[in-house]
User: Fold this.
Amino acid sequence: MAGGPLRGGRMRRAVGALGAVGCLGLTAGACAQSGAAAGGAPAGDPVTVLRGAADALVEAGSAQTRTSMEMASGGTRVTIRGEGVYDFRERTGRLKVLLPQDPAGQEVRRPITELLAPGALFMKNRGAGVPADKWVRVDTGTLADGNLVTGGATDPLVAAEVLRGTRTAAFVERTEVAGTAVRHYRGTADLAVAARDASEPNRGPLGAAAEGFATASVPFDVYLDDEGRIRKVRHRFSFVNGTEERPVAVASTTLLFGFGAPVRVRLPAADDIYAGRIAEQ
Assistant:
């Protein structure tokens, strides 16, 4: 794809292909509640439990998802939210991504449709001179962040496989996420270790992120249900944009529910993919 991820002024250039990133936009009902459910810490070492959390999602097959992202730099915050479905076995998904409102409040931004596939991200309603009926294809293997940030939403399986690099972790409490009893863990993952232990399609993206971020260490909070499935995971990334002197802080949150939901993803034909240059925004 000509043009590739964009660069430019401050926040909108930092996210590459979308030109904006997002914030924690989950509804109050989706957030962890303060009232803890009965029960204590599960048996087993937290590090071992979390390193295997992605396997429980693959076993579950699929899920509905809500994503949110928050980027902060120099007192400026940019937010984006997403919602869709994901197939953990096929590693494919569809998201509708809502960009933040234009700062002047004058530009109406249509939702971007994103298709997630092994090694690729497809976007429709991309803007920036791309015809409305065309898709933009991004090779995620070329992205310095491994598409943990560029798409404005972290691929749900990649988000889970970051936990394969868990270095330290501790059980925090029993609580609830959207009415489901969960166990809350807090810890730190190493992206280089995650890349080594991830499934084959995700080793490249996670390895790129380990090299491209300001630090390969990723603090996280994760909430597992009684079947070991991730219900919510929040990562905090840090990277240095080419136009910024200080690291940009990114908080990416993925919420999973409705396990077993049908997922139908049809990737665009070659003729439907835009081959021109993307204008800077």
Remarks:
- The CA atoms of residues 40 and 174 lie 6 Å apart.
- The chain has six helices and twelve strands.
